[in-house]
Amino acid sequence: MSNLNDTLHKVTQRVIERSKPSRSAYLDLIRREGDNMGERNAVSCSNLAHAYAGALEDQAALVSGRGANIGIVTSYNDMLSAHQPYGRYPDRLKIYAREIGATAQVAGGTPAMCDGVTQGETGMELSLFSRDVIALSAAVALSHAMYDGTLMLGICDKIVPGLLMGALRFGHLPTIFVPSGPMPTGIPNKEKQRVRQLYAEGKATRAELLASEMASYHSPGTCTFFGTANSNQMMMEMMGLHIPGSAFIQPGTQLRQALDREAVHRVAALGRKGDDYRPLGLCVDEKAVINAAVGLLATGGSTNHAIHLPAMARAAGVIFDWDDLSELSHAVPLIAQVYPNGSGDVNNFHNAGGMGYVIGELLEAGLAHPDILTVGRGDFSDYAREPGLEGEELVWREVGPSMDDTMLRPVSNPFKPDGGMRLLQGNLGRACFKTSAVDESRWTVEAPCRVFEDQASVAAAFKAGELDRDVVVVVRFQGPRANGMPELHKLTPALGVLQDRGFKVALVTDGRMSGASGKVPAAIHCTPEALGGGPLARLRDGDVVRVCAATGDLNTDADLANREPALDPIADSGTGRELFGMMRRFADGAEQGASAMLATGGM
Ligand SMILES: O=C(O)[C@H](O)[C@@H](O)[C@H](O)[C@H](O)COP(=O)(O)O
Ligand code: SF4
């Protein structure tokens, strides 16, 4: 194994130094919480009676106080195919707990939005803030203070970040994330994309489009593109918060069940009652955050994590920013290509060697911290192996070389010498650009811009043929304080058609894109946002805008300083958006995590 990469070491030391005050305050908090909330029998008998009343056959075990009591926080609902399997989990997890003399109770539930259902609809304006609602809901669940350890049932975009942010405020407890796994592979992603572009051009019917979409998203389990949900699973492995190798084992399989069972048995051992105390707040430290960032860059993960990772880190007192991510990006090679960054999906990725291969390669090259505290039985090197069954027994095996070098390659022969995401900056602000999902020949676009203030106007202009030229499409007032920073992924088919017609096309927005977005160059998360007079608010149709991922440029030749900004739009109501006014009002910038909850909570 090589020594730790110099850039990794330098960035890690910088993050440790910057985080000293906040990390120290956080560690003091979880120490106090452990002392005050670590022993459930310290509360009154009526508190205990209320907590035990619904426990049925577990009541006697709870009263005895002998075994660990595990709190399950579940984000089950039928809207997310990824979360649908969780409906049956609590009863199974309770059985596994009883096997070791422990108990498990559902501590509470959290909401979960399916960004695929809300994509392009007004509900998407609640999506980013639903992350903080999930964190708040997890805190409500864990505030019952009845638990010696917790299990987080959540997979998708905002849910894992929200659950982790909430659980970190109870970081005196051990926590294991329990994924449910990807659905079996549907039609090829290229075919899905082809039918979408045909529909965008009016060459496919709605019935044909629906048939194609349902052949792609067809059953319980996580969608199999490498978007934010599957990037979450990758990051949980990189932070050692899963049972090793749990990320991409399909629902309903014997191996899935064995891993779920191991999570219950393991979390009981990690608590203060167990013999291997590993509280979440000590697992998620500066090195774990750096490992997560490295995983994001090495696998071409979702751009949404440029927002969620700083937020998750802040919840543990760690301050991580886009300069850290950008510097790491120049040191971490791209060693995986999973759709939208390639043609294979996460099932193909897993079968090619998956996260065990990625972690093994990164550790060998000194591109990940080997000494993080994990929830596994050993150390982080366990995560470079893959789980399997020998009869009923759960075992871990060496991974070996990549089984498909169109998807997974060694650090010595990467797809790209540097990571899948770049920081752009200039007189239009700072933005993220996902290089892993865009052909390098399209990394530079310099063209007159067309300025829009919502997605529908872009679609109308496209249909009217107004965009059939080299163009930088600017969609502004999509930032967190404007309208909750929605994903603008529905723009991809139309912009993809323009690109296929031979035009140089780029998108610039203070909004987000989906982790599944690709093909079209996009400078996203522009900060400061347009609302309140940010640079994008001063752009006008025809200004020449330069987007360049090679040089990191995001500039215009217009004289912005001598222009009045466009008027801030009035926030829309409907779909419950008016309930989120407080989150819009106090949200901080995308680079800080776009969170009113963290900003007003002093984190
Ligand atoms: O960040 C993400 O990964 C996306 O939010 C994803 O969860 C969302 O569901 C996409 O919209 C799916 O892609 P399609 O819309 O192309 O199906
Ligand atoms: S991956 Fe996206 S589309 Fe699929 S279930 Fe999760 S949130 Fe919904």
From TrEMBL:
Q: Which pathway does the database say it acts in?
A: Carbohydrate metabolism; Entner-Doudoroff pathway
EC category? lyase
Q: Which terms in the GO cellular component ontology are assigned?
A: cytosol
> What's a Gene Ontology MF term here?
phosphogluconate dehydratase activity
User: What lineage does UniProt assign to this protein's organism?
Assistant: Bacteria, Pseudomonadati, Pseudomonadota, Alphaproteobacteria, Sphingomonadales
Query: Cofactor comment in the record?
Result: Binds 1 [4Fe-4S] cluster.
Q: Which residues form the Dihydroxy-acid/6-phosphogluconate dehydratase N-terminal domain?
A: 69-376
Task: Please list the residues that bind [4Fe-4S] cluster.
Answer: C156, C223
Q: Which UniProt keywords apply?
A: 4Fe-4S, Carbohydrate metabolism, Gluconate utilization, Iron, Iron-sulfur, Lyase, Metal-binding
Belongs to which family?
Belongs to the IlvD/Edd family.
Q: Which reaction does it catalyse?
A: 6-phospho-D-gluconate = 2-dehydro-3-deoxy-6-phospho-D-gluconate + H2O
Cofactor dependence is on: [4Fe-4S] cluster
State which Enzyme Commission number(s) the record gives: 4.2.1.12
The protein's name in its UniProt record: Phosphogluconate dehydratase
Give the protein's biological function: Catalyzes the dehydration of 6-phospho-D-gluconate to 2-dehydro-3-deoxy-6-phospho-D-gluconate.
- Residues in Dihydroxy-acid/6-phosphogluconate dehydratase C-terminal domain copies: 407-594
What InterPro entries does this protein map onto? Answer: 6-phosphgluc_deHydtase (IPR004786), Dihydro-acid_dehy_C (IPR042096), DiOHA_6PGluconate_deHydtase_CS (IPR020558), ILV_EDD_C (IPR056740), ILV_EDD_N (IPR000581), IlvD/EDD_N (IPR037237)
Q: Does the keyword Ribonucleoprotein apply?
A: no
